[in-house]
Amino acid sequence: MASLGAYLRELRDKRGTSLEEIARSTRVAARDLESLEAEQYAALPAPVFTRGFIRAYCQFFGVAPDEALALYDQREGAAVAPPSSPRVAAAARNAARPRPAAATSVPASDSEEPRRRSAVLVSFILLVVLGVALFAVTLMIQPSRDVERRAVIRSAPAESRSPEPPAAVTSPAPAPSEAPAAPAPPPAAVEAGSAPTFTSPYRLVARAVEPTWIRVRTEDGRSTEETLPPGEVREWVSDRPFVLTVGNAGGITLELNGRELPSLGARGAVIPRLVVPPEAR
Question: Counting Cβ atoms within 10 Å, is residue 252 exposed (0-12), middle (13-18) or buried (19+)?
């Protein structure tokens, strides 16, 4: 069975990605990623944070982290001795000693029952604490950069904003000596043909050219998020505009109702809130 380090290195070698690229995208230090691949667990923080690093590593490549976490748990179980072995050895030594006749009247199970209940209660409390810690680590790794994304949206390229409608076109009045010219088209018709319009339902298609993290919120309030590897295509349908968060503006192209949208921005730029199609102003 492959170890955790070999599994992670195989993921990275297949995509030809460096540890520095993974560190920039996941916000996990490169030295911690090296320790994971080298299985140097003593150089890593507490297991709660190490599990978060493993999840971020797998999400960067768009794979489920279950297999990697299972390999990590097996490594932990092999390194830690069973906590009940000293107690079992002590019980075996006590059983080998001759006991007085009065001691046989008290069953051994009566003294062990409170200890078993205490062990079950402690295990339950540890599971609850572990679940809360994992949830906190997940929040820290991905959505904790909301403040930074709000600042980046101010410098987003002009292509991502909705175009302003052109001014109405009017024809000059003819001179008195000239014959009346053909009537000009109404201003509303000129404005309608100058900018593309989209009707619902909206069909949004995303194509990744580089590893890109994206989150899409639809009309029912549901959000889907994932890291798209190069060449992947995703599609969503909604009766209302989509709200997108993009982690790499230059690594993805969008198409709405069969029309390709303008470039979102430069490579590595973060777009915290993009409405497609643009909201009416």
Answer: buried
Q: Which two tokens stand for residue 18?
A: 């460096």
230, 264 contact by CB (below 8 A): no
pTM of the model: 0.31
Cβ neighbourhood burial of 118 (10 Å; 0-12, 13-18, 19+): exposed
For the segment 133-185, what is each residue's pLDDT rounded down to a tens digit?
988 877 877 654 554 555 444 444 444 444 444 444 334 444 444 444 444 33
Task: Give me the residues paired with residue 242 across strands.
Answer: 276
The 202-208 sheet, strands edge to edge: 233-238, 202-208, 252-256, 259-260
Dihedral sign, Cα of residue 90, residue 91, residue 93, residue 97? positive
Q: Rounded to whole angstroms, how far apart are CA atoms 149 and 153?
A: 6
